[in-house]
Every structure is written in C-alpha cells, then in structure tokens.
Amino acid sequence: MAGGTRSWWGWGNVEDAVRGEELDALLGRVRALLPDAELAPVQAPPVTELGLPAPRVKPPSALEEICSAELTDRAGHAHGKAFRDVVRNLAGDVRSVPDLVVRPAREQDVVDVLDWCSRADVAVIPYGGGSSVCGGVEPRLDGDHAGAVSLDLGRLDRVLEVDRTSRAARIEAGALGPALEAQLRQHELTLRHFPQSFEFSTLGGWLATRSSGHYATVYTHIDDLVESMRVVSPSGIGESRRLPGSGAGPSPDRLFLGSEGILGVITEAWMRVHERPRWRAVASVHFQDFARAVAATRAIAQAALFPANCRLLDPMEALINAGTSSAGGVLVLGFESADHPVAPWMARALELCRDHGGEVPDPVRDTDTGEPGGGRTAADGWRDSFLRMPYQRDALAARSMIVETFETACTWDGFAALHAAVQGATATALASVGAPGVLTCRFSHVYPDGPAPYFGIYAAGRPGATLQQWDEIKAAVSDALIAHGATITHHHAVGRDHRPWYDQQRPEPFAAALSAAKKALDPAGILNPGVLIDR
Amino acid sequence: MAGGTRSWWGWGNVEDAVRGEELDALLGRVRALLPDAELAPVQAPPVTELGLPAPRVKPPSALEEICSAELTDRAGHAHGKAFRDVVRNLAGDVRSVPDLVVRPAREQDVVDVLDWCSRADVAVIPYGGGSSVCGGVEPRLDGDHAGAVSLDLGRLDRVLEVDRTSRAARIEAGALGPALEAQLRQHELTLRHFPQSFEFSTLGGWLATRSSGHYATVYTHIDDLVESMRVVSPSGIGESRRLPGSGAGPSPDRLFLGSEGILGVITEAWMRVHERPRWRAVASVHFQDFARAVAATRAIAQAALFPANCRLLDPMEALINAGTSSAGGVLVLGFESADHPVAPWMARALELCRDHGGEVPDPVRDTDTGEPGGGRTAADGWRDSFLRMPYQRDALAARSMIVETFETACTWDGFAALHAAVQGATATALASVGAPGVLTCRFSHVYPDGPAPYFGIYAAGRPGATLQQWDEIKAAVSDALIAHGATITHHHAVGRDHRPWYDQQRPEPFAAALSAAKKALDPAGILNPGVLIDR
Questions:
Q1: Burial class of residue A366 (count of CB atoms within 10 Å of its CB; 0-12, 13-18, 19+)
Q2: pLDDT digit string (tens) for B455-470?
Q3: What is the predicted pLDDT for the residue at B170?
Q4: CA dist., res. A369 & res. A376, Å (int)
C-alpha cells in the first residue's frame, strides 16, 4: 500500500507484514504440509548493525540535493526482493551496497548523473521499485569501479499526457503500479499490467525487464503495450516515434525492452492503455488427469479465443494456493471486455475443456458491472491474495522455510519432458540438501505454440543454511530448463543471478551485437555492470 | 504462378503479363478516370542490349558451381520491383548490376560465400524473391567494393520439420509463398502470411523486412509469427531457441527482424503456423462520411474483436479497386476461425459500425466449409485480384502511367491531419510535375492505437519522364509523413530509397547501436552496404 514504511529487508511495507491470525493460519498450513519444518523465527538486524562501509564517492555539489547516503536507503537498495535477497538481509549479510541512492527529480538529473558517473567511473544501477528477483539491482562489482550509485527513479511518477482517441498515455518511468493506475483511472483508462510485484514495481522496471502481467494471452508482456519509449544513455537521449506499428528497420524499442539498464535509463514511455472492463466471465474447470488438462489448455491457446486469464494449476498448486483438491489440476479461465458480453467466448472455451474431460462444478461467474470498471469481482479477490504472497514468503523465509519460484516457457511438444525433468531435478536436489518439500506448477501465460510454466518450491530448510540449500536447488532446476530447450526466464529477467544459464541460451552473434551496442551507448561501461553481458 | 519464366524487368512470370481482354478493360478504366492519359506502350529491351559490364569478380573454384554470370540472371537481380525499378528497366537503364548471382544449395554455401566475400571485399546482397520496392536488393555501391554478388536463397525452399502439437514448422528462408504453403498444406497447416508479393517473395525476405500480411489485427507482421531464427553472419552462425515467449534480455530475433540483410543472412526459421480456417464471415459496410467510417474502424480496432480483415477503403479506393461507389468509404470486415463459428464476433463489429452510421446493404457472407480449409470463398476472389495488381501496374508503367503505392502508420489521434497533409502534398506535387492523377487510401492493418494507411497514386505521366515525376511526388509525400509523426514504412522496409526519411525517424542512439552491432557481426562491411545505415 502506498504511504507506508518500506521494509529495508523484505517485501513492501513494514505495516503490512504478516502477523496475528494471518500468520497463525499460514504456519498452520505449512505444518500440515511439512510436519518436520522447524519454523523458528529470526529477525532482521537494524541497519545500524550491518556494518556498512562509508560511501566511497562524493557527488558533485550540483547533485548533492538528490543524493542520499542514509543507511536505510543504502541497505534498502542493496538487494532486490528474491528469496536469497531476503535471507541474506535477515542474516545481516549485506556486502554489495550502493554508496549513494540518487533520486532524480527530472530527466536532466538523469543526464547529469550519467555524465558525472561516466567521468568518475562510478557504476550506475537503475532502480525502479527494487523488486528484482535475479540480482538485477545489486551493485556486485568485484572492485571494477570507483563506487556505485543506485539511481532510484521513484520521483518521476506522473502520467504526463493522455491521448484518449488513440488510447495511449505518456507515463514517467518511476511510477509504481498503483500510482499510475490511480492517475489513469481519472480518465477511465487502465494499463492493466498486474505483475505480482504490481504494488512495488515501476513502469520503467517493467519495460527494462520485459515484465509480464495480467493478460494470459496476446498482450502477455509489457513489450506489447509500448507505443514509444524515451531512453537516456550516456551518449545521448533517444525517443522513438509514437507508432501503432512499423516496419522501419529493427524495432528501436525492442532493443531497449529487456536491456535491464545496461544500455540506458528509460525515463518515460507512451503506453497503450485500455478502457476499464465492464463484462467478465470466470470459470474453474477440474480435470482428472493433468495431461488432459494440459491438452485442453493447449486447445484454448490455439483457438484464438484470447482469454484474459488461462491459468492451469497442477494438483499441488491448486491445493496450496487455491485450497482446491483435484486429481488432474484446475484450469481457471477468465474473459473480460469493455466492449461486449463475453459469454460466447467462454462457452466455446468450456466446450474445448469438456472435449478433454474437464468438468465445471460451479456455474460460470458472469459479471456486468453496468458501467465501465465498476464493482469488484471474484478476480479481484484472487488478485488481493496474489499480491499478498510476497509478504507470506517473507514470513516463511524468516522461519527457515525455502519458499521461492522460478518460471520459464517452452513449446507444447516439449512440456511433458520439461515438467518431468524439473520434477526430477527438484526432487533430487531437495533430497541432496536434506530439505523435505513440494513443487507446484501453474501456467501463468499461454501461447499458441507453448505455455509459460511457473513453478513454486516450498521446503523446510535448515536454519542458517537455507541460502546454500536454495542455491543448489536453483542451479539444478536451471540446468534442467536449459538442457530441455526452455528459457531461463519468461518474465523474471536475467540480472546477475541467471547469467550462467542465459549465456548458454542466447545466440553467440547476438551477444556480440549486444556488447557492441553497449560499448557505443555506454562507452565508460558504467551502466549496471555484470547484468546480461560481461563488463 | 510457379514454373513460369520470370520476367527480368517486371513482376512475376512473362506468361502471366496482362494482355487481351484484361488489358483492354484495364486501359478502358484508366481512360474513364484520366481521359488525357497517353497510354503509348513501350517494350523492355532484351538483356543483350543493356550493355552490362563484364563481371569484375571471379568466385573461388569451390563456389563456381553455384555462381551464375548469365545476363538475364544479372539483369533480373539488379533491381527490385518498385515502379521506379520497372520504369528504369523498361528504359534499359540498368546501372547497378550484380557481378554474379550466387545460389547456395545448403547453409554451408552461405558461410563460404560470406567468407570469400569478406576476404575479397565483395558486397553481398541477400536476395529472396527480389520484390523489394525500396532499393533493398539493388547493388548501388558507389565504387566502395571490388564487386557485388546477389545471394539468391531460392534453392533453400523446403519445409524441414513440422511440430503439429506446438503448431510450428521449420522452414528454409528461400521458400516462396506458394511453395511453403503447398508443403504446409500436406500437414493441414498454413502460415497465412499473404503479402501482395506472396507469389514472388520468400520467408527470409519477409523476416528481413518485417513484412506484414494477411491478418489486419494482432498478428499483423511476420515478426509475430516467428518462434526462432537461424542467421549466418560473417562472424558466426546464431540460432535462437524455440520459445513461445521469453523475457531473457532483449529479443535476439527482434534485432534480425527488419535488419534487411545488413547483419546476416537468415537461412531458416521456426514459424508459428495455423490450422486452415473452416468458418468465415465477410461483410461490407458503407458509410456516408469518411470521418465516421474511420471512427467505426477505430471502435472495432479497440474492441479486441480481432478481425482477420478490417480494410477501410476511402471512396476513391472503393471505386477503383472494388468497383463500389460510396460517399464515405467502405469497410470490408472479415472474421475467420479454424475452431468456432464467428457470428458473434461479426455481429458485434457490425453493431459498432451501425453506431457510427454504417450501413450493411448485403447480407453477411457466412461460410462453413464443413472441413478445415476446404472450398473457396469471396475472400479468395479478392486475393486473386489483389495478387494480380502488380501485373497491371507493369502494364500501366509501360504506358507512361505513374502507378505506385506508399504506406505508413500513425496514431488515431493524428490520422486526420496526416491524411489531409498527404492529400495536400500529393495534389501539389502532381500539379507541379504536370501529371493529372488521383490518390486512394485504405487501411491495410489496424491497431488499438492507430491505423496503417496504405496509399495509391494513379497519374498520367509524361512519356520518358515518369521516373523523375514519381521521385518528386514520392519525396513530397515522404516529407509529409515524417513531418506528421508517421513512419516512413509500415511494411515496405527501408532499403536505400527510404534512407533520407528513415534517418530522420529513428532515434540517434539506436542508429549508433545498430552500426556498432553491424561492425561486430560484419567487420568487413560487405552485407547489403548502404541499406538502413551508412557504410
């Protein structure tokens, strides 16, 4: 929630941490699943006890006003929000910390910071909401630079312009999800990009990491909602034209989308926005057999029905995160529209499900809010609990549980083998590190040619050793993903932590081209060193 | 049609040129529209009279077998198929001609050709079907290289592999449209990419130029149908993973899509294919007012109904190319599906049209072929006449008519001003060059945030001067596009002819990045010099 006290060590706001009845219920569910879990709580140390070194760099006087060397700022910007970040914070293990946190108030400040840092060999880590789960905002520099600043775009948070006719809005990169939605709502518009990090991640972060969001089909990634972008690089400012489509050379925007801050700092973008949906239909389909559930989901993905939600939960995921028991998984289907009732779409999707053995025990929940975007629906409830999950993850991480996710994408043809390989690698790794646990799987997004499987691991770790245990599990499953032709990430980005697998995945000539592009745009090599490519 | 004799100077096959009754009818229509047109025919000279210089380079003996110095080959590969190419050919004005036409029989041949040419400073012009309309395949080198070869991928024309489960096919880059569709049809699949050049353009050409095709919405460009690509560059071969979606760094494919042969030679790609549609619905909506027709089209584009066809014709376009008289234009709407009847989709789209004053004089043509892909429909008839247009263009170009198209994209908000500016610039330019003529406009593709307007010019030129006349008109309208924030091309690519406007359009930092990427992948600078960026 906006306006709270950001936790320096964990997700979101201090005031919103899991406690009381929610905590009791959560721990109860864990004990039922993993009776041997110890669940002994630890507390994060105060930032004054982290032993942070004094800043190694001093900003030019013209920039002093936007620079902070405050301990909580620096500690809070040292890590992202992965499980391994939270565990290290809880242990007081904060080694790579920015010397300063810089908060530009206007684009020229960004230009000036890049100028100063290029001259002074200071690494610049572009920072949106800080929700990276792959080491994307951590100044892990191996001594290559005179220092590091975290460039926090949070003050650039306005919707600057709205073109209602073209359904587009010019938005500053530092706007957090709720802030930009609140501003768009005044125009009865919405971006409808709802990653799990929604409350504490920014437009610029979404663009830089090719975030995926609300839509299970068609507009899966933020890439698809970009009309144009403005990027400040050390060698100049670039702004692409506002174009609905173009074939003029390789897409300029696509080079910066996913560039994770190594080529420039995104300062604003024209985004394609939507009218707020009025009609919604939601249904849950139960299956006796997971392979048939996958086949049904594939049929829907290939039917060009374009559901907004097409989330297949495997039986363990359905049990843990939806409280539903099913032998073959549950497919949660949702259609929505600001323009028309969606019953024909849902009817055909359910027909496809029934063709594959799906059963629909409850009636379809049809909603017509009567006006664009009014009212609350079942989907809102799921979203609330979805947004709550990172807080619960922290509560468990502080009780020596291993709770983490990883995600990928693969072809339909390759899914069964990949799934088996991930299950096998996880089981072996859990046994090897001595952590009893479970693996869940859902499809977060689906495409005509394949799903984006999203995996969760819940395991009882050994107090004080969960970081090493997780790193071993993560390496094993990452190896399995790469060996089976999948991507190391569908929407969590690469950062520093995914580099070993990303380096195997990407075509070598592309890596050479990207390195050359970086040298042209960032000749001093100050931008997010170590992310995506070698320094 | 496959198997004919390719014309060295004009579109397609010699056997299919416009003659007899078709020619009489065509000239009759022109005389009705432009009574002053002279229409005196000229004939292209035989290639032996072009005075082509002897080849300046000699291939290594290992490559001799795949090299041709034959005059018709060289003359036929000198130009693309723009109006200005055809006019120059008809005048025997063929100055930039490749020294050799090289036809690799396997990927290793491509590697060997790039090796040889890098060593010998020979420019390599990747060549698919040769249908470029922007100077993309013309070896206009200004003496910077020892010679030039046209690398014709036409022998690499097979569908190598089909993954029916994931609906994907691995296809060689040199496959022409009809050849790849014929091979896919054996699997009851289709790529459904039908640019106007369909019969004489290749998969590799579509990918290298970001071709747009059949689908008016969602999958507008070939980019959206790519699962992975294989590219041979002078510094190595790259192949991206087969992934339905990914967020691992900037998209490798998107750097090569639209790279127009300057970064490497695309040799094959995994493409997303479809089942052949069974259900179709087609309707024509008439409007009294073009602005209201545009508003209706916008409403459909923003309603997420995703028609396959959403072609708004202005009154002149409707008259000339559809034989329909209407005060405010005609919207041709088409829905299609391999999965379900499309009546609800069409019903809602027509409702939106009626809300904006549209009238539907004829009943919706609903088709159910009863089996996937069987039968012919009205859409097929339109496609046939659509594919016939380039032949008719040639017949008119040979009779001193100026017949050419240009296309762009813009936001909905900017369309009216852009349209007026293009109309104004065209009228002024036509008057200035003394060519009475008309301008037509249609939307080839539509997006939630804007249309892709496609313009046609039909003017009575001065015999012997139509090239200069067209160049002046083209410059005037291109200036108008750029001044009004539009793109110099939505799907015709940049090549050499669009450079002055492309250079104004693209962000400068992106140009620097692209140049750096090219230097890394093509250190000798042999690949399609002068296209997209400076040598």
A1: middle
A2: 999 999 999 999 999 9
A3: 98
A4: 8
Q: List the one residue out of B124, B398, B168, B420 whose CA is nearest residue B272.
A: B168
With a CB-CB cutoff of 8 Å, which residues 127-166 of chain B face chain A? 163, 165-166
CA nearest to B300 within chain A: A339
Second-level CATH architecture of A279-373? 2-Layer Sandwich (3.30)
Q: Name every chain B residue with its beta carbon within 8 A of the beta carbon of A233.
A: 509
Condensed to tens digits (0 to 9), the pLDDT of residues B163-216 reads 999 999 999 999 999 999 999 999 999 999 999 999 999 999 999 999 998 899
Nearest-CB residue to B163 (from A254, A344, A411): A411
Q: How confident is the model at residue A1 (pLDDT cuts 50, 70, 90)?
A: very low
On whether any CB of chain B is under 8 Å from the CB of A54, the answer is: no
Chain A contact set for B352 (CB, 8 A)? 339
Across the interface, do B235 and A512 touch by the CB < 8 Å criterion? yes
Least confident window among A146-160, B210-224, B518-532: B210-224
- What is the CATH T-level fold of the domain B14-53+66-153, as seen in this structure? 3.30.43
* B111 shares contact with chain A (CB less than 8 Å): no
* From B247, B409, B491, residue closest to A490, measured CB to CB: B247
Q: Which helix (H) or strand (E) holds B170?
A: strand B168-172
Q: Report the C-alpha gap between A126 and A231 in whole angstroms.
A: 12
pLDDT score recorded for residue B1: 47
Instruction: Tell me which chain A residue has its CA closest to the CA of residue B239.
Output: A507
Contact across the interface for A517 and B516, Cβ inside 8 Å: yes
A296 touches chain B (CB under 8 A): no
- CB contact (8 A) between residue A409 and residue B506: no
pLDDT recorded at residue A384: 75
From the list A167, A245, A502, which residue is nearest B249 (CB)?
Answer: A502
pLDDT, position A58: 97
Return the residue matching tokens 């549609």: B277
Report CB contact under 8 Å: B514, A512: no
Is a pLDDT exceeding 70 seen at residue B372? no
Q: B252 CB near a chain A CB, below 8 Å?
A: yes
Q: Give the CATH class of B159-275.
A: alpha beta
Task: Kindly report the CATH number that applies to the domain delimited by A166-275.
Answer: 3.30.465.10
Percent of chain B that is helix, strand, coil (3-state, to 5) = 35, 20, 40
pLDDT category at B323 given cuts 50, 70, 90 is confident
Contact state of B489 with A248 under an 8 Å Cβ cutoff = yes
Please give the mean pLDDT across all residues of chain A. Answer: 95
Residues belonging to the binding site of B for substrate are 393
* Residues with Cβ within 8 Å of residue A209, at least 6 apart in sequence: A132, A136, A258, A260, A491, A492, A493, B247
- The verdict on a CB contact (< 8 Å) between A245 and B445 is yes
The radius of gyration of chain A's CA atoms, rounded to the nearest angstrom, is 23
In terms of pLDDT, which residue wins out, B376 or B239?
B239
Contacts of A419 (CB under 8 A, 6+ apart): A441, A453
CATH 3.40.50.1970 assigned to domain B400-505? The reply is no
- Measured distance CA(A461)–CA(A468) in Å, rounded: 10
Give me the residue spans of the domains in chain B: 14-53+66-153, 159-275, 279-373, 400-505
A83 touches B at CB < 8 Å: no
Residues of A in contact with B492 (CB under 8 A): 247
Burial annotation A90-104 (CB, 10 A radius, 16+ → b, else e): beeebeebbbbbbbb
Which residues of B are annotated as catalytic? 454
Residues of chain A with Cβ-Cβ distance to B452 below 8 Å are: 244-245
pLDDT tens digit string along A134-172?
999 999 998 889 999 999 999 999 999 999 999 999 999
Q: Note the pLDDT tens digit of each residue in A320-368.
A: 888 888 999 999 999 999 999 999 999 999 999 999 999 999 999 999 9
